[in-house]
Amino acid sequence: MKKTFQLCCILFISYSFAQNNILQSGPMVGYCEMTEAMIWLQTNKKASVKIAYFALDNPTNIFYSDVYSSSKEVGFTHHIILDQLEPGKKYTYAVFINDKKIILPYETSFSSKKLWEWREDAPDFTVAIGSCSYFNETPLDRPGKAYGSEYGIFESIAKKNPEIMIWSGDNIYLREADWDSKTGIYHRYTHSRSVKEIQPLLAKTQNFAIWDDHDFGPDDSDGSFYNKFLTQKAFKDFWANKSYGMNAEQNEGIYSTFSWSDAQFFLLDDRFSRPQITELRAKERF
Fold first, then answer.
1. Which pTM does this prediction carry?
2. Are 70 and 112 in contact (CB under 8 A)?
3. DSSP assignment letter at 205
């Protein structure tokens, strides 16, 4: 009987670890509104995913998201809506994959937007802004000294507990092997998003992003880049901004806006419709 019990425990632990291994990257907190928030994550194969969450001031009242599944078409990324929030509360959340809770070694939390207008002064908050995140992959890096390393900076940012992290472009660096194919583009996003040092920051801070040339296409690429609709799709699959463009049907560019407290943020797209440099120089001559 004792051996049977031990075997059951081993099998249970093995199954739990197996679910952890399905989690490729994330979870990542996306936009947070008064009554709704988005959690993003990526698995490495098809799986059922859901989020459990509760407000810190009422931990016995646990809510669950809908169950989500994904496909290789979107890189097994999931955009999970949490729609039972109350304004101005901090929440803790947990990831379940195939009905098993994923144990993570860092904080997973977010705060809903506060309803402060006509009631009190606008709340203070902290924003972190960064760009040019080069994550090494030796076989595809250029020869010589690599650009990347020192990823501990992301852990340092997380320790500052900003409410918002803005990734302001060159959040990944597409390599020569990447930008000509969907396989390469999605590989680059997956490789960059899976770096362990960025996970604590993703898991407890609202993350918003815009791109620059290296996550849009080749170096100094402009609106003539032939794969821009493909890199646009990858951007939307791997980020969780509140919007892309002015309406849901807009499919040219990833500009966006959102507000927090008394601040309005405008995320500008300087690549999708950027004129060719040769065209600009021709106009200057006249």
1. 0.90
2. no
3. S
